[in-house]
Amino acid sequence: MIKMAAEILDGKKVAEKAREKIKNEVKALKRKPGLAVILVGEDPASKIYVKMKERACAEVGYYSEKHVLKEDISQEEVLELIKKLNEKSSIDGILIQIPMPKHLNESKILNSVLPEKDVDGFSWNSLGKIMSNEEEILPATPKGIIRLLDEYGIAIEGKNAVIVGRSKIVGRPLALMLLNRNATVTVCHTKTKNLEEHTKNADILVAACGVAKMIKKNMVKKGAVVIDVGTNKTEFGLCGDVDFEAVKDVAGYITPVPGGVGPMTIAMLIENTLELARMHDEKNNL
C-alpha cells in the first residue's frame, strides 16, 4: 500500500497571486499607497524582514520610507517620529518592527500610531475590533494563515483548532479570528500540561511556539491541517516548529518552512497598506 504524503500549502504561490492582484489594483489608483517602516537597532532578523518588506513595496508600486533608529534612542524620540508620520499625508500605514529594545515601552509605542494607520493591526483599537467580531485591519501573519486556508478550500467552521503559542502577534489574534469563523479553539502554551492530548485532537493545528521541530509525528491527528509559523535557525539550516519530514506522513495538509506562512505575512502587510490607502482616499473624497 502506497503511503500518501500531505498536500503542501504553498504560501509562496498564494502570496504571488495576492501581490499580482495588488499590483494591478494600485495602477487604478490616483496615487501610490505609502508605507513607513521604523526599525530600532541592528537586530539581524529584523533587518532581513524590513528588507523583504521594502522589496515587496517596490514590486507593487508603493511609496515607502525606512527609518532606522539607533539602539539607545529615547522613548520620546520614537514617539516624536511616529507623530510626524501620523501627520504625513503620503503615509497610509506605519509599521514598527518588533521586538524593540527593552528600555522602550513597546505597547505605548504601538498604540501611538493612529488607528487609521495601524497597518500591523497590533493596537488596542484593532485587536478590540477582532474581539468584537468587527474585523477591519488584521495582523498580517494570522490574516495570511486564514487566507491560505481559504485559498485551498479548507473549511474552518465546526473544526477543532489548536494553537501552540499565545503571542500577541500570532496566537492570541489568530484564536479570536478562528472563533469568529466558528471554529472550536484551544490555545496551548508553556504551562499547558499533556500537550499531546490537545494537539492530537486538532483538525487544524497551528505551531507558533518558536521551538525547532517541537511538534512530532505522534502529536498530530491523521489528516490534520498543520500550519507551521516557526522560523528557527539550527546547525542544519532553517526549520519550523514542526518536524516536517515526519509529520507530512500523517497530516492531510502542511506548510513548509520556508515558503509557507512567511511569504503570506509579507503579502498581507502589503494588502493592509492598500486597504488603509483606500480608506484614506474615501475619507478625503479622492
Description:
The protein folds into 2 domains: 32-114, Rossmann fold (3-Layer(aba) Sandwich), CATH 3.40.50.10860; 139-261, NAD(P)-binding Rossmann-like Domain (Rossmann fold, 3-Layer(aba) Sandwich). The protein is built from 10 helices and 11 strands. By secondary structure, the chain is of the alpha/beta class. Helix content is 40%, strand content 16%. The N and C termini lie far apart (62 Å). The chain has a 6-stranded parallel β-sheet with strand order 1-11-8-7-5-6. The longest helix has 23 residues, at 261-283. The radius of gyration is 19 Å and the shape is globular.
What's the number of structural domains? Answer: 2
Task: Report helical residue fraction.
Answer: 25-40%
Top-tier CATH class of the largest domain: Alpha Beta
| CATH architecture classification name of the largest domain | 3-Layer(aba) Sandwich
